[in-house]
Protein: AB hydrolase-1 domain-containing protein
Amino acid sequence: MILSNFQVGEGPRPTVLIHGFLGTGRNLRSLAAAWSAADPGRCFLLPDLTGHGTSPGLPAGATLATLATDVLETARAGGLEGPLDVVGHSLGGRVALALSQLAPEAVARVSLLDIGPGPIPPGQSESGKVLEVLRAAPARAADRKAMRAELTGRGLSGPLSDWLLMNLESAPEVGVHWRFDREALATFHGRSNQEELWGALARPGLKARGIRGGRAHYVSDSDMARMEALGCPVDTLPEAGHFVHVDAPDALLRWLQRE
Structure:
C-alpha cells in the first residue's frame, strides 16, 4: 500500500522519518528541514502511517509488520533506493524495528526516539489516555472551535487538543468530522502495544541507537540497560518529555548527526 507522504531534500542518502501514534508526517517536518539544511546529502521521506493522516485506513488485523510493509513500499515507490536510515518516534520507532525484522537488507540503521522494543503496559501509554478522550468525543461538530471545546472539556490541554484537531476535515452540511477511524485505531493500539520486538535488537548486524526524554517514562532504566547490552546505545535528553523532537530539537539534531 502506498501511503500519503512528502519528501525533503535531494541527497543520495535515503532517510525515513516515522511519526508516532495519532500523528502525521507533518509532525516531523521541522526536524527534516533542519537536518536537511545541516546535511544536504540526505533525502527524507515522511509518510503518514497506515490509518493516520490522509493515508488509507487500517486493514483488519493490522500489526506493526503491516505498517512496516507499507512504509517500505512507499519508500521504494518514492525512489528511495538501497538500505534506509529509519528514524521513528514512539509508534514510529516500533514500526522501524518491525521493518528491520521484515526486511533486514532494506535497513541501514534504526534510530529510536523515546521508545523501546518491549510491550507497553496500558497504564504507561500516554497515547492510550488520549485515545480514551478521543473516542468519547463526538464524531462531528459544528466547527473546530466546538470540537476543541469537547476535547478540552474532557481534560486535554489546549496544545494537545490543537494537535489532534489537525485530524479534522470539513464536509458540507456536516461541519467537521474526524478523518481517521477511531475504533480501528483503538483496536490496533491495544494489539501493537503488546508486540515484542527485543528480537530485532538481538539480530546480528543491525545498527541501532536510541534517545529518551528525561521527563518521559517510555524507556525505563532497565530497558536502557537491556538495549545497551544488545548493542543499542541510549542517550538521555534531561529537559525533554516524550516528544523529544519538540522539547529539545537542537540537541536531538546534534545526536542524529553523530555517526
About this structure: The longest strand covers residues 107-113.
